[in-house]
Amino acid sequence: MTQSIEQLSATRSHGGWVKRFSHRSQVLDCDMTFGIFLPPQAEAGPVPVLWWLSGLTCTDENFMQKAGAQKMAAKLGLAIVCPDTSPRGTDLPGEHESYDFGSGAGFYLNAKRSPWSQHYHMYDYVTSELPALVREHFPISEKEAISGHSMGGHGALICALKQPGRYASVSAFSPIVNPMDCPWGEKAFSRYLGDERGEWSDWDACELILAKASKQPMLVDQGEDDQFLEEQLKPDHLEKACHIQGVSLKLRRHAGYDHSYFFVASFIDDHLEYHARHLFADQA
Amino acid sequence: MTQSIEQLSATRSHGGWVKRFSHRSQVLDCDMTFGIFLPPQAEAGPVPVLWWLSGLTCTDENFMQKAGAQKMAAKLGLAIVCPDTSPRGTDLPGEHESYDFGSGAGFYLNAKRSPWSQHYHMYDYVTSELPALVREHFPISEKEAISGHSMGGHGALICALKQPGRYASVSAFSPIVNPMDCPWGEKAFSRYLGDERGEWSDWDACELILAKASKQPMLVDQGEDDQFLEEQLKPDHLEKACHIQGVSLKLRRHAGYDHSYFFVASFIDDHLEYHARHLFADQA
After folding, report:
1. What range defines the domain where residue B9 resides?
2. pLDDT category of residue B36 using cuts at 50, 70 and 90
């Protein structure tokens, strides 16, 4: 059955298109928007796709407007899809009160606790419903990779870890790698999942690695002047978990860089080339 | 005498820095902000500068966040300075009522009509006061080029035409080339300059070319699906004026592209390389 989508805008970009759509999400039970970059190569046939998951307070638009990714994506022939960061328009009690929980802060998990469990199934949305929808409407092949920033870096890592073999490659900028052990994650997980911390480890990259969920290699970039580095991001926890389990982690620490999209824009081309090497590996 | 500036932010970007400052403008009689990109080469000594003038409703931030120019500017060794688009914080009667006049819409001219003449001297600001201020505080050489978008494309063209020989090169995206003959320009010029249309031609690129102000070559990019093309931008007027006066105009019309920063981002690297060829010409 074809799910309908409504085009909000279509803008030429680097020989391809940046387009935005709205649609009714069944798994989130609300209307959602997403953005897609279609490279010029998509006019000739299906192209691989990079799923980009954004961070706290972001929407589907930040990456498309600020990351400067389209030039390299057009060169490589990669589509990029940017979901929104939470359900929208649901107005649950307290949903809009803080920047790090509720709207704009879905944490890419499936909530178990009421009232969040009515709508907050962002994991199912970004790994199942949206990919099926996008493939119905656009020339996107089965080849896919995933990346993201901050909360979206957490999202990218857990999606890849929870579905070994699905994504050709995974990378992240400034990811929350161990949400069970940082204020952002503890606040969100306790409200979305409840107080039983045993339930949390299913949505924590470090815990998933320690539980031998997957041995997929990872590329992670982290700014050393990131204001959230010590308290929230803790890349050393990821380094340690990967070391223990023998998972190949390329963790690059960049002196002077912060948490902003200027950091993402500075290194996004490296990530796109990394993903392209994996996505096109069998064609080389 | 050193004018003081206050740093609002400093962010690593492509091996260089994106910084924002506020300062007191004497010629505008108000506080202003500007943005600067300093490429890595600026750590070793003075670098040439590109002045970027933004369009209606923009601030000093749009270009830095959305144009994706830093990667190429870092490669070429160009600084980029982005002024704001009008005086700020002055609250003149009617100043904030429309998007195409007053705040966010200074049109890079020196207003003659009260009350605008108290503050709206954006031409003097972007060609004199700000350049002097920037050179006091940053390693910027005397070599300079100028570019801009829409109202800022108009600004770039008139700055270069009014000061022959000053800018090594000039370019524009989707410029208002003939403000005397379009609704945006007629509204702004009549209010800033008064009803005497003879006064307007000093601030109109086509009129300046026809008056033989300068024969400097120009690079202009225009999207053919630009929603303002027919009514406001009229690149054929520029083409005609240049043809009459034998001015070299490279006007590129891009099928499918609109008026957005996705258009600017798609072709900004060409402009940066064009300016670098002129800025570094005597070093080749």
Report:
1. 5-283
2. very high
Q: Tell me whether B256 touches chain A (CB under 8 Å).
A: yes
State how far the Cα of B166 lies from the Cα of B259, in Å rounded to an integer.
28
Model pTM score: 0.95
Q: Is the peptide bond before A87 cis (omega within 30 degrees of 0)?
A: no
| Model pLDDT for residues B108-133, shown as the tens digit of each residue | 999 999 999 999 999 999 999 999 99
**Closest CB to A66 among B11, B65, B269:** B65
Interface list for B 64-83 with A (CB within 8 A): 65-66, 68, 70-71
**ipTM of this predicted complex?**
0.93
For residue B39, what is the domain's CATH number? 3.40.50.1820
DSSP-derived pairing of the beta strands A5-13 and A30-38: unpaired
DSSP single-letter state for residue B4: P
Q: Which structure tokens are listed for A45? A: 């046939």
Query: Which among B87, B73, B75 is positioned nearest to B18, based on CA atoms?
Result: B73
Shortest CA distance from A68: residue in chain B: B68
Tell me whether residues B11 and A254 touch, CB distance under 8 A: no
Largest CA distance in chain A: 52
Question: B41 — contact with chain A (CB < 8 Å)?
Answer: no
How many domains does chain A fold into? 1
